[in-house]
Structure formats: structure tokens, C-alpha cells
Amino acid sequence: MIKLNNIHKSYVMGSNSLHVLKGIDLNIEQGDFVSIMGSSGSGKSTLLNILGMLDTYDQGSYYLAGNLIQNMSEKKAAQYRNDLVGFVFQSFNLISFKNAMENVALPLYYKGVPRKKRNQIALEYLEKLGLKDWAEHMPNEMSGGQKQRVAIARALISQPKIILADEPTGALDTATSYEVMDILKEINDTGITVIIVTHEHDIAAMTRQIIRLKDGHIHEIIRNGELKQFQKSYMKELETA
Amino acid sequence: MFDIDKWQEIFATIKKNKMRTFLTGFSVAWGIFMLMILLGAGNGLSNGVANNFMNDAVNAMWIWQGKTTLPYEGMKTGRNIMFYNQDQEIVQKVPGVGVSSGRYFMGNTRYSFGKESGEYTTITCQPHLRDVENLQIEKGRFINEIDIQQNRKVVVIGADIKTALFKEGEAIGEYVNINMVPFKVVGICTEPGSTRNRNAYMPLSTAQMIFNGNNRLHNLALTVNANTLEETKAIEEQIRTALGHQHKFDPKDESAIGLYNKLENYIQTMKIFQAIKIFIWIIGIGTLIAGIVGVSNIMLIVVKERTKEIGIRKALGASPSSVIGLILLESIMITTVAGYIGLVLGTGLMELINYFMVQSAGAAAATEQSETIFMNPTVDLNVAIYATLLLIVAGAFAGYIPAKRAASIKPIVALRDE
Predict the structure, then answer these.
(1) Cβ neighbour number for residue A235 with a 10 Å cutoff
(2) Residues of B with CB under 8 A from a CB of A
(3) First and final CA of chain B: distance in angstroms?
(4) Which end of chain B is more exposed for a tag (fewer CB within 10 A), N or C?
(5) What is the mean pLDDT of chain B?
(6) Other CB atoms within 10 A of residue B237 CB
(7) What is the pLDDT averaged over residues B13-41?
């Protein structure tokens, strides 16, 4: 599904350049549930942006669903984003002057779906996420958890192959965070690949694969069985702390 | 362009920012409003002055007798130049002269019919005077060639004379006594642009014969066929030379004969109005540009404000062209609607002024002869259509840079922008 070969990325800031990603090799299969962890500056957000075609890379190659993602026109990138990827952000990024239903329907607007139809579909998705009664509400009338659920509905409406979530629980309290993670898990169960960036161990532990980044390299990948081990050691860390 | 969704998006944002939209639109509306008022006022002034010229043929020329001030061929200065019938023929032969008429002045002449009588000005002339002075025949006919040849005692009276002497009765065919000599009324005329029609016209030859004029003329009225200032000057020069040859005076002697060249004045005045018009357009477009820059400015702020929203849209799959379309259409929409309001208000105000002016002019005309310098201060439809097109182009222009900037927003940068 996702295939990264030796991805390099630097940011030029004035005269000095910052080498953020120093050769990332990564394979993520269809239906995986992956979290990317790392301290700030480790390149995890940059990696997610590259995966989401929001940013370009300097070197290497990136295949998404069999398509080489490289030197694309903005139009093409926008189309791929619309077709393949759903985004969930830490700060929700809902459009403040549109109500929940219109926010959810927005990706379908860019697909060219007629207004009536896309609003109807948006209502279906809101219902799935238990927000049907909130369809006419503006984002500022909703709680953080509700907003994030609207954002998830928006990410799902275009039936993407991948959900990319950048700190989806970063702005939420623990209980709401777990709710959101449950929703993401359910989404993953329907076969959609879910990739989240987080720095919270308990959130990461709910995924099935953890990729730890350190200084632009993949430091370690923790999978299935080992995950139990990780969870244990994490508990220990908590106890000692 | 005609995508309902896009319009709904635009209306939604406009509705969310009423004050900002109003202020933006106001600057454009004001610009167009001022342009329309300036153009209307310019047109009014131009129309008024042009109308005053229309009292006579615009290419009319009058020549009258003078006194020499330059010695010529051994003759001293101070000689009176006197015109005779042949002078009209001489002038008529000058190339570029259209039609001409000699005129013989009579002092005040007493007109009487039945018990009514009054003193009026009698102008003795040849048939072509009608063309020179743009006389309008209300009824009957003007003096013709046969009147001249047969020294017929006929007269064409002004409408006011007819009213004074004949009241409601029929005048054509009746005989009026002019200085005790009966003349048959053959026509009633009016002078355009004048509210007084107290002149009467009689055949030159008849007047010369009856009122002891011999073959004397007092002045000459003619039209010239010329399009440019240079051409009229040349014709003027030739007339001076021809008359100078006849009467033995220096053609350079400006006082030997008097000469008024209306076309020259007309061309010069129209040139001034052209300059005024250009000036008005420059000012108007300048005002408009200020408005457009205002729109552009606000749209830049709009884009800045909406950076995050645009970033979200792009992340969700908005193509650069759809973002450009969004900003551009909003800009065009604001400028067009606001500009149109300004256009309607501006032209409306000018039409209103025109309405009141026509009314008061009507009132003034009833009491006295009035020369307006302001008339029909309105802007024609073509200008309004051009202005509308200009607005759309201006809106596109105003929105272009902001839209380009919006399209170049990188979603990651926008989304990071907290």
C-alpha cells in the first residue's frame, strides 16, 4: 500500500539547511494500523505530510497504492489527496463558518458531487459517528470530541484508502481520546489503513504497529507480539516515573 | 463560473463578513459614482455650449464693413470700406464658400396690420440666409430667388410678430404695412435656440428699391465648407484677399473689414471640450483605480485571513484553479455589484438634475431669452455598458494577485498556522 525507499527531506532556512529525514525505508500494508512516534524534531510530522502528499521529498521514492508520488502538479496532488487520503488533525481544522454537515460534505464538493446528494451522504456519515442531531451546528458550538468526530466523518466521506491522523487526540482529554481511538480502530477494522502521529504512549499502544523515529531515521519498529512487550515496559516506565 | 455551489460558497463568505464587504464595495461604488457625475457634468457643459452654437449654422461667417488702418497702394489710412451687391458675388466665388447672402440694414421699421402695430427689426436678405442662420419655417415659405428677381413685396415674419399683429388669425397671404408700404406675408419663421422671434425677413432687392438702398450692402452672411481650423483660416484669408482686391485695401488689414468666423470658434471650443472629456476620464479612472486597489488590498487581507481555510480545502482536495476561482469570483462579484450600484446612483442623480433643469428651463423660457451653458447632463447607455465591462475587468484585476497568492498557499504551512 505504502512503500517508501530511502526518503530524504531537508528544509532550507536561510543559509543553513535542516536535514529532517535521512533515508526512510518503510512498508505499510493495506489494513495496517500504525502509529508514528518520536520526540519533537524527529521528523514524524514531516513524514506524515509526505505520506499525505502535502509536502514533497528530495530524494528516494514513494509509492502510494501503486502510484509513484513524485514531481506531481498541484492539481494532480489535490486529486490524489481527495481520492486516496483522509486527514484528521490535532486542531480539527473544521471550517468555522460551515456547519457540521457542510464540513463533512466538503471533500465531495471537490469531487463534483451535487449539493443535495453530498449533504445526504454527509448526514449518513454523521449518523455513523453519532452526531446526526448536530448536523446543523457550527463547529464553535461543539465540544472537542464532537469536532474530532466531525473531522473523522469528513476524512471518511471520500472513502479513502488511508486515514492520516496528526496527533488526533492531542487536544482531547483522556476519555475522549480513547473514544476517538475506538472510532479509528473501527475504521481500521473495515480495511482502511490508519496512520497516526502521536507522542502519547498509551495512544500508540492501541495501534498494531509503532514506528519510532529518531533524528530522521527509523529507530525501531514494534510489531504485534513485541507490542505486548512494549506495553509492559511502558507500564514499567510509568511506575518508575 | 455558473456553478451554483461556487456561488453559494461566495455568498456564505460575504454574508459572514458584511462590514468588510460593504467597505470594499463602497470604494468601488464611490469611484464609479464620481466617474458618472463627472462625465454627466462634462456632457452637460458640452451639450449646453454646443446647443448655443446651434442657434446659427456652425460653419457660419459674417463679414461687415470697416475702416482701413494700413496705407495701401498710395492711399492713406482711415478710408471707409463699403459693400455693394457685387461683393456678395465676389465672396460667393471664393472656393470653400458654401452659400452666401448680402444684407442691407434698415433701422427700426414699423409694422402694422389693422389696429395692431409694433416696431421690429427687418433683415433684408437673399434666400440663403436661411441656411446661415438656421431659420425654421413654421408656416409658408422663406424668401426665394423669384422674390429677388421680381422685387416682390413679400415678407417672412417672426413668430412673435405674427402673434402680436394677427393674434390667432391667419397671417399668410395677408398684407402688413411696413413703414407704410404694404407687404404680403409669405412665411412665419422661428430661430432655433432663441425664445424671441421678433425679426422679419424681406428680399434684399425689394428693400434696396423701396427704401433707397441702391445697390448698397451692410454685411455679408455665408457658410464655409471646412473641417479643420487650418481650412477655415485659409478660406478667411482668401475672402480678405478677394475683397481687398476689389476695395483696394491690404488683405492684412484686420480693420478694413470685420469678420466673425463661427466655425473657428466652434472647432476651438469643441477642442476644449475634448480636452475636458479626456481630463474627466483620467480623473474618473484614477478614482476607480483607487477603488480597485482598495478591493485588491482587502482581498489580500481576506486571503491572509482565510489562509488556514484555504489550506484545509487544499488538504481535502481543492485544486489550485478552484481556489483561484473562489477568490477571483468573490472579487469580481463585489466590484461588479458595488460598481453597478454606483453606476445607477450616479446616472440616477444626473437624470434627476436633468429633470429639474428641463422644468426650470421651461419656466425661464416663458419669461425671457435664456442662454443655457448646461444641458442634458446625462451619460449615454454606451458609456454605462463600457463602465460595466470595465468593472468586471477591474474586479478580475483586483482579485488576480490575491487569488494567485491564495493558490500558492502550501497546505502544511497553512495548517501549522495556529
Answers:
(1) 13
(2) 4-5, 8, 12-13, 16, 308-309, 311-322, 407, 410-412, 415, 418
(3) 32
(4) C
(5) 83
(6) 13
(7) 82
- For the segment A223-232, the average pLDDT, to the nearest whole number, is 68
Which of B309, B322, B407 comes nearest A110 by C-beta? B322
Residue A80 CA to residue A86 CA, distance in Å, equals 10
Would you say residue B374 has pLDDT above 80?
A: no
Give the per-residue SS3 of chain B: CCCHHHHHHHHHHHHHCHHHHHHHHHHHHHHHHHHHHHHHHHHHHHHHHHHHHCCCCCCEEEEEECECCCCECCECCCCECCEEHHHHHHHHHCCCEEEEEEEEEEEEEEEEECCEEEEEEEEEECCCHHHHHCCEEEEECCCCHHHHHCCCCEEEEEHHHHHHHHCCCCCCCCEEEECCEEEEEEEEEECCCCCCCCEEEEEHHHHHHHCCCCCEECEEEEEECCCCHHHHHHHHHHHHHHHHHHHCCCCCCCCCEEEEEHHHHHHHHHHHHHHHHHHHHHHHHHHHHHHHHHHHHHHHHHHHHCHHHHHHHHHCCCCHHHHHHHHHHHHHHHHHHHHHHHHHHHHHHHHHHHHHHHHHHHHHHHHCCCCCCCCCCCCCHHHHHHHHHHHHHHHHHHHHHHHHHHHCCCHHHHHHCC
- Closest-CA residue to B239 (of B129, B97, B125): B97
pLDDT in tens, B298-344: 888 888 888 888 888 888 888 888 888 888 888 888 888 888 888 88
Q: Which chain B residues are closer than 8 Å to A49 by Cβ?
A: 412
Q: Is the per-residue pLDDT at A233 higher than 80?
A: no
Here the ipTM equals 0.86
Mutation target among B307, B316, B417 for the A interface, most CBs of A within 10 A: B316
Chain B residues inside the 8 Å CB shell of A91: 418
- A7-36: pLDDT as tens digits: 999 988 888 888 889 989 999 999 999 999
Q: Is the pLDDT of residue B169 over 70?
A: yes
What's the Cα-to-Cα distance from B7 to each of A97, B3, B160, B326, B406, rounded to whole Å?
15, 7, 66, 9, 18
- pLDDT for B235-269, tens place per residue? 988 988 998 888 888 888 888 888 888 888 888 88
Report CB contact under 8 Å: A74, B322: no
Cα–Cα nearest to B83, from B111, B97, B62, B69:
B62
Alpha-carbon gap, residue A40 to A49, rounded angstroms: 15
B276-285 b/e (C-beta count within 10 Å ≥ 16 → b): ebeebbeebe
What is the average pLDDT score of chain A? 88
Residues A218, A2: Cα–Cα separation, whole Å: 16
If 0-12 CB within 10 Å is exposed, 13-18 middle and 19+ buried, where does residue B381 land?
A: exposed
A21-30, A210-219, B43-52, B155-164: the lowest-pLDDT one: B43-52
The yes-or-no verdict on residue B3 having pLDDT over 70 is no
Is B318 in contact with A110 (Cβ distance < 8 A)? yes
The rounded radius of gyration (Å) of the Cα atoms in chain B is 34
Report the percentage of chain B scoring pLDDT > 90: 6
The shortest C-alpha distance from B323 to chain A (Å) reads 11
For residue B418, what pLDDT is reported?
52
Residues 6+ apart with CB under 8 A from A117: A108
Cβ distance of A89 and B415 shorter than 8 Å: yes
